């Protein structure tokens, strides 16, 4: 235990040393650290010795070395939009946040090479817009894209709505620049599409949530911009039909389907609670809804493809009702239901958010079983299941009654999570499909981690970060090699 | 040094111990090891203490443990079709080949889940055929597919002709089962499409060429079988036009292009030398040829797409002449030029084979520069450049006059390689786009390896295989931790 006075003295010393090593311009302390030490949902507020804001890769290297020299550890942070506390310090007196927000330069967009090189701190939507101005497309698309930063996307191997066609972030990455725990720079920003020179080291940093190093820049694949997009909202008689429809669409629409999201009937209610004047696109009520998008460029007539596909499946009864957006504005409105549903949930107060994946063929069964288990255990809570059918990824959220006392709400959230995870384990599913582990899911991850994996992860971590400088407490708790 | 007599006695002892530990059924010795100790091209013949042929994952684990207990190291082998000596022992008195050929079972094909689980020893074409019988498609396609085995494809991160649409083997893998250097089993055969539970350990084994463990089974993504395929052979006025055409096709044909190969005029000459009665599909002579394939399933009319695309680019003069295959047999014949060209090269005797990648936008420049450099340095040799435009991957092969003495041929091959690599280095390209490093390319890889990477690779190797049991001499030479 350190007395308060000792702690304060040490804090002053740390601040002085960091400013000395890096210059005052790079170092935030005091009240200014607060916004870097609150998570996206506002559930957790913590602190840090300082926040360092490097302007270059060399600054990042110097920052890591300065922290290591002081015996401080490092929590790398991008847009701070993560959902699992991967970038939220949990040991304020001994952790320093390194924010990449000032390293936001797009170093190169090369349309002829179908590639770009971008720094970790660039906001995803700004990068997507810049790429679009060159007639190209960077497929990563997720709710937080106006705030999240590309380095965080890489470090969490972000998913989103276009995964079924373009893959996770991992599949979009051609190369990485990483500052390693010892402050050396891994310089791997090649844009080669194929490179089988030995073990592909960049893979270990993708999805590592900053536990093995700090991603400072990324080279990525680009595709031609899809100048035709067809969006449809469909009413179905059962979630099983959504799975069957996906399989059918996967075949009939070749590889041109770019999104296939399912939503429950409650989606419209929740969306209206958030956006009251949102027009209702389908008249009837259906047990399941699908938001489907086909897109492409060039000589394929995407709208015609959507019309012929829906014509066939509606005639067969696989789809009960549907509407195809006739304009970009209408397509935007259809997506607003999907997004408004999330806002509506937030308005109902604290609730359980999950991020589950199961084998695609078992998605409907899992949702049925898990919702039934929650209903039996917590009859006063409301289930909201939605997600990405093509990826077997469901966000089964559970909303407790909002008029309960905070501790009762917390108890229901905890109980709901346990009930859902118990069902999930029988499906051999994942407790984190796309959000990562961070600190929030560490106990559930840790409890399910097979010994062989733990041994490999420990070997990997201690080989690359023997003094445990990088993001301790994230993903797993390791013990320092003595 | 061991005397011959000591060596023979030790060999007998090893054989006895391996049979004792594993049973005679699993152990081949004497003359029977020969076919496992010759490389695919027949350039290298070596030997091994024994060849072990496990029938199960547990057998593989027992085999690894038995070898380690005897102080022997292990060279894992699939179909032995590799081109870089990754599966060819180089220390016959201390290495054991573990062949996966008996682990050839397809454990599951689940069309509803778009996935399959297959053992490492399954021959690629047999797996593709089995998948096709379920109406599905496994996209990996390469010349050796009738002999190579899926575990080798994973361990070398195999490429091939469909990479531009479906990615390298890495992008097709959902999960792995691996026997680790200590004989424990990494059990990761999930078929989840999305799984962000911590660092993705399977990635380190893909492309590791058996240096970190032995892949014993794989779960992979399947896609619907493309029941429409349009194949065209095109004559172009320059290789630059091939690059421009690719960019155009990438946009106009959405993501439906599945192959885009370029070939030199000499391709037809070489193919005819191998297959004399092959019909000539295009009448004129052109400086560059492209073999292009578009494919898909369902509602998109693929032939119509190809016709409209070629109509436009021929009118614009980007393509000088072209033929679209009107039947499967005709499409097969067009591909025979591509394959016959390789056979024709083999018939001309020993020659340099390269496997180079450069940024896509610089492919034509590189071929021009590298061919000019070879022509200047070796005026009596013939250049043959062909490859995968969409991946920036060129096989620039150099054929010495076949009537030279063997040592003069070897000298020209060595010289050609040096000349090409010197040009390649100025392009920041890769000496191994898709074949791997193995033992053949180790010196060239080693000479170009940045210190930061070497340190990371050493840390990784010694963390996972501290006693250097797994495939020593492949990729890099490591020194045992003392």
UniProtKB/TrEMBL annotation, chains A, B:
It comes from the Bacteria. GO terms for molecular function: catalytic activity; FAD binding. Keywords: FAD, Flavoprotein. One of its GO terms (biological process) is respiratory electron transport chain. SUPFAM superfamilies: FAD-binding/transporter-associated domain-like (SSF56176), FAD-linked oxidases, C-terminal domain (SSF55103). Residues 44-225 form the FAD-binding PCMH-type domain. PANTHER family: BLL6224 PROTEIN, D-2-HYDROXYGLUTARATE DEHYDROGENASE, MITOCHONDRIAL. This is FAD-binding oxidoreductase. It comes from Rhizobium terricola.
